[in-house]
């Protein structure tokens, strides 16, 4: 049996070579200063690609760097090294500057729906702000609400009158309103109850793909990621240790950390064999 070099990420399939990746990360790192001196490398030399009309799941335990990587992709954090490219243009950190138009094609759905919406503005106003960023006119406030299974009169209400699941659907609608080419979901189902998690994840996938966007879906719930992702990237301690098509991850994982994550999943759906 051929031995596997676990010092490097096992990357077994990338977007088709015939097309330029929509999003590309090349040896990207991010560091934070520690209290009392020293630095902590939250993201360590990550290289990753996202194809057109693709859903990429990013999984790993809490604290492994998933959310930091999401912020780097959206320009909310400044990399310590490496380069991120979106549609052929470099992604640069926002700082105090207004977001460049070239980066409006990347939109994020955050983990906490209670904090991501403005409680002082009606839902209609918040959706209209996002709609103004997309000149295509493909959406209206009413069609966005309908797409996320909310009634048209929800537009007149404030966010405090909605449940957590409804607020997250509104946050998804707002992200879609801007006409993104890449939708980044940073643990978007973590604060929801188990009944809603799979439903919201599937909704995000369907809406992204049907609108012509790609999606990076970040989660520690591998069962949900298995249901919606085309490929899965596994992250451990700031590094991507394995990338492969979703079913290959489940049927023949190569990295010990991937095997550890899969072994921790209760086998309830009868799909294949979860390696131990």
TrEMBL record:
Coiled coil location: none
InterPro entries: AAA+_ATPase, ABC_transp_ATP-bind, ABC_transporter-like_ATP-bd, ABC_transporter-like_CS, Oligopep_ABC_C, P-loop_NTPase
Signal peptide: none
Alphabetized SUPFAM superfamilies for the sequence: P-loop containing nucleoside triphosphate hydrolases
Keyword annotations from UniProtKB, A to Z: ATP-binding, Nucleotide-binding, Transport
Pfam family, one: ABC_tran
GO molecular function: ATP binding
Domain ABC transporter, first and last residues per copy: 23-262
Similarity comment text for this entry: Belongs to the ABC transporter superfamily.
Name the UniProt record assigns to this protein: ATP-binding cassette domain-containing protein
Species per Swiss-Prot/TrEMBL record: Brevibacterium spongiae
